[in-house]
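Re: 6-diazenyl-5-OXO-L-norleucine structure - here you go.
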Amino acid sequence: MGTNVTASRGPTGADLDVVVEQVAQDVAGLADQGAVATYIPALARVDPAHFALAVAPLDGPPAAVGDADTTFSIQSISKVFTLTLAMQRFAGDIWERMGREPSGDPFNSLVQLEYENGKPRNPFINAGAIVLADILRTCLDDPLSELVQLVSELCGEPVTVDGEVALSEAETGFRNRSLANLMTGFGNIHGDPQAVLDIYFAQCSIAMTPAQLARSLGYLANDGVDPRSGARVLSAEKARRVNALMLTCGTYDAAGEFAFRVGIPCKSGVGGGVVGIVPHHLSACAWSPRLDQTGNSVQGRAALEALIDRTGLSVF
Ligand code: DON
């Protein structure tokens, strides 16, 4: 890792511009490590050479390097938004239907679900997100439109679902269908499992840029208030809990490694995006499509690690 500039805690403006450029250099040597996700064919067609880091500080202008304005498939990062929407709109108790513990298993594992009577460990593994989609169907007339509207408001620009990716997910989503059917058998999916999966596949197929993702998550760095519009998205307590779940469960069976190396709440997706939150300082998104064995972006994780190293902004 380079050592020429180490910014003081919480750099802004020109300092932050320098830091993101240096982070890009720090991780350039990892460009050929890992492999693009192929189990969803539409994702396999993405150019593996993309790289971006976008940072949205609470107290200054955004900084970015690389392909920060190129759209990509946000995949499991969408689970942060569906949890947020459910926390906003569901009057019942989400936690009767899923837990708040790391799974220690791959994100699409079926094994634990059988042992634990169809109750997912947390909202960020696929099973938990599928239950969240079911919950949203019970409290909203058109959950997908409401989700797209929420995300568009948060990033300040209209976002859309990539229909080709959604179709590709639906055609190859055998494990997700198994999860939904198993949980229906246990009584933890209340609606039509196919309709629930349609929401889940579509949410994963939302297309956003790294810059949009970084700024859309500002509310998690700002005690639940969108720092750009001033609108309250979640109570401070709920925002804190989303951050806690991201730290412990947001990167699946690599959550310990992320906490050890990066040291901030993170959420990843198999499109190669990783978002990170530094409470009271910034939200960030790194993107690089090549993944490690746990489904996390190799350069994405390294970029957030380098960002935190250089800024000293670990939560620990
Ligand atoms: O359901 C799936 O397998 C994908 N649509 C999303 C998985 C994902 O992004 C997990 N992340 N690392």
